[in-house]
Amino acid sequence: MAISDYFVEQGSGDPIVFIHGSFANTSTWKQIVAELAGDYHCICIKQPGHGGAPDPDDFDAPSVETEVKIVEQVVQHLGLGPIHLVAHSYGGVVATALALKGSVDIRLLTLFEPVTTGVLEVSGQEEEAEAVRQFCLGYRAAVAGGEQYACRRVIDFWGGEGLFEPMPEFIKEAMEPLTPHNIRHWDLCQKLKHPIEEYAGFQAPVRVVCGDQSNPILRTIAACLQQHFPDARTDIISGATHFLATSHWQECLEHIRQQEARNL
User: Helices in the chain by DSSP H: which ranges?
Assistant: First the structure.
């Protein structure tokens, strides 16, 4: 593969690497990067099968290593020093796996509503873990049954009931073909259950940011991550849903800048 197919870059300075979520692309970070590129080298990773990047070849046996290796290769290709890793939603699953693997020098980690659902089970949050399992069963059944816009279930589950319906039709149409990728992402979210002791090995500052209008399970995930990472905090953005990286990008930008200030 050509690693240049998996990222776009802008600006110069200390590197910040961004990873978007499911049903999304690098435009998630467009406004944030526009503000940061004057001071930082911003690198936006394209998830496999998203934003023109080639499809993954592991649908039969999904592995997060597919995404992790892409980030590793981008960092190596660009010769980046210690990075500030910023991720949203499923991107947070990839970012967490990369951080715990320890193969890339990460100076700061900022996660916007990571859907690292596996942490619920290892943290003893069985009620929330069961709610996720039941959602996945219904979602997979809807996809298998050919339900049009089954992706609405994901948007409404994380962001709030009825959030999908008013979306512009062109966005819905763009999301529909990405559903198999999203199913793959859910498989990995459920499969990845990092042992709690692995978190202790990551010493860089971690900030987890959530909206107060999204699924409360996301704030439980944030609390679990805060508990397990040695140097972590959680912040809440008032009025924001799961899609805070675009709807509340100014506040998200401020959290990224605050993280950078810790590194001075």
Answer: 30-36, 65-78, 90-101, 118-122, 126-144, 152-159, 169-175, 179-191, 196-199, 216-228, 244-247, 249-262
